[in-house]
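Query structure, 196 tokens:
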């Protein structure tokens, strides 16, 4: 099914897992009048690369909401995360799944760093996240919205339907306000995150 993702700045026509066209809404809608239309506030970007793949998926425990009384709701790192994984080895895969959802909620479509734990790697691969080279020098602390934000190269016709939409005025506003402004993330043509 064809889906047309529309923002004020640009529109992307998606056919399955690939980008069929990029351009003004009027042109794309006229060319494919039967396409399902999804309208988004803000800007549509190629999505973000998070350079902290192993740190977020292997070294951080992402609590299940049902564990809020025990662990709270925020990600847990450091020795406390290691204690949880030692006590409950099967928790790594479930934690990684929740971590991937948090990455999607921040417009992440690619990870850098070598994810080695099989459970976390399997989750990342199944999710459709792609892997890229890690920058030589990482700045700042591990974050779902790292600074600086790393935008991927532009969208290309025939390329993978992998992008994110942020409710910001422009790229400078995205840099200023951060990745938590994400309203939608698409990977492989599937809407994997949508803000409520």
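Result returned for the query:
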């Amino acid at each position: 099914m064809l889906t047309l993702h529309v923002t004020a700045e640009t529109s992307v026509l998606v056919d399955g897992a690939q980008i069929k066209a990029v351009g003004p809404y009027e042109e794309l809608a006229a060319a494919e009048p039967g396409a399902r239309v999804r309208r988004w506030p803000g800007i549509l970007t190629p999505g973000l690369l998070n350079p902290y793949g192993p740190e977020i998926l292997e070294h951080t425990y992402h609590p299940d909401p049902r564990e809020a009384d025990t662990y709270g709701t925020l990600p847990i790192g450091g020795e406390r995360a290691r204690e949880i994984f030692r006590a409950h080895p099967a928790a790594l895969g479930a934690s990684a799944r929740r971590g991937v959802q948090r990455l999607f909620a921040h417009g992440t479509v690619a990870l850098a760093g070598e994810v080695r734990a099989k459970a976390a790697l399997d989750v990342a691969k199944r999710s459709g996240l792609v892997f890229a080279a890690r920058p030589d020098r990482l700045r700042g602390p591990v974050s779902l919205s790292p600074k600086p934000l790393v935008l991927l190269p532009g969208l290309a016709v025939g390329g993978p339907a992998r992008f994110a939409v942020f409710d910001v005025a422009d790229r400078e506003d995205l840099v200023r306000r951060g990745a938590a402004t994400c309203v939608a993330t698409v990977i492989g043509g599937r809407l994997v995150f949508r803000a409520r």
